[in-house]
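A reminder from the course coordinator: this example appears on the midterm review sheet, so study it carefully.

Given structure:
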């Protein structure tokens, strides 16, 4: 079969041309790794996901995720967007839509719950998005000097905060250098310094930095609010409009730093505003008897395009 179906969606957005674009390639069985990498480079989105039959029949699918330059063991918006596409396709075919998909990935099995809106257009069970559960517990590194993180953001060290935590590498499946910025204005002024990224990040085992600033809690929902940006020029992504894996790691970090032994916290993270693609990521952290549960992160999605990729004649 030389043609492969694909769909594109805007993830972590409730409107077209917001959020983070994702290409989902269906019928990906028999594609080579080189072909997947070439297709991801052709789309040139932050990530492209490929859906293959699961290796374990108890799971829903094997999902491989590629940036324009490399394969990832886990990423946030590809899981949310892939579940959304598969659920919508099942619904369109008149098939039952599961409450949850189980995706096999390099970082482990990723449970992804489908989000429905029963009130939309008066139809029961309209698929509007998805919510993932992080595949790994939080890991974090020793502190990274303020000056190093600030250099990656083209900011002075005084623009960063370290009261809650110093800059450090955090991961729940994919590692990022995470830094808290002091003000929203400083976050808006941040720019990736490619030379600093090349000098600093490889030694830390990462290729991206995630910067955030805390805002006042949402008065209506009680959710803690963050504004965030993510830069990964080493991976061909100058800036990402919505970064689920980095957001999940950051929320897990902030929940772990909370001294309470029992805590449940909802989070609203706004990203992409400074690049014209506003995104909203909704998170949940839960701690019981001092033990943190896997962080959950989700949001809405909007379908954009669908078609086929003709591989006839491709090397």
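Designed residues:
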């Amino acid at each position: 079969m030389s043609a492969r179906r694909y769909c594109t969606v805007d993830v972590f957005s409730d409107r077209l041309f917001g959020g983070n674009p994702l290409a989902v390639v269906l019928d990906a069985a028999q594609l080579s790794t080189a072909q997947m990498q070439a297709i991801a480079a052709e789309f040139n989105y932050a990530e492209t996901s490929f859906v293959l039959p699961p290796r374990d029949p108890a799971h829903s699918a094997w999902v491989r995720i590629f940036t324009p330059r490399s394969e990832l063991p886990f990423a946030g918006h590809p899981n949310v967007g892939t579940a959304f596409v598969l659920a919508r396709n099942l619904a369109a075919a008149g098939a039952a839509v599961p409450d949850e998909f189980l995706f096999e990935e390099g970082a482990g099995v990723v449970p992804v719950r489908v989000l429905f809106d029963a009130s939309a257009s008066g139809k029961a069970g309209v698929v509007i998005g998805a919510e993932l559960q992080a595949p790994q517990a939080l890991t974090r590194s020793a502190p990274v000097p303020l000056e190093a993180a600030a250099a990656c953001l083209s900011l002075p060290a005084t623009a960063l905060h370290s009261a809650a935590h110093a800059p450090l590498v955090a991961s729940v499946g994919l590692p990022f250098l995470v830094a808290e910025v002091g003000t929203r204005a400083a976050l808006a002024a941040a720019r990736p310094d490619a030379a600093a990224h090349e000098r600093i990040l490889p030694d830390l085992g990462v290729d991206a930095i995630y910067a955030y600033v805390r805002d006042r809690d949402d008065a209506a929902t009680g959710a803690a609010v963050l504004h965030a940006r993510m830069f990964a020029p080493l991976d061909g992504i100058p800036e990402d409009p919505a970064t689920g894996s980095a957001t999940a790691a950051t929320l897990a970090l902030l929940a772990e730093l909370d001294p309470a032994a029992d805590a449940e916290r909802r989070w609203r993270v706004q990203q992409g505003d400074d690049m014209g693609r506003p995104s909203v990521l909704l998170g949940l952290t839960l701690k019981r008897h001092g033990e943190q549960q896997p962080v959950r992160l989700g949001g809405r999605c909007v379908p954009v395009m669908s078609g086929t990729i003709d591989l006839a004649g491709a090397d």
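Residues 3-134+300-310 form a domain with the Diaminopimelate Epimerase; Chain A, domain 1 fold (CATH 3.10.310.10). Residues 76-92 form the longest helix (17 residues).
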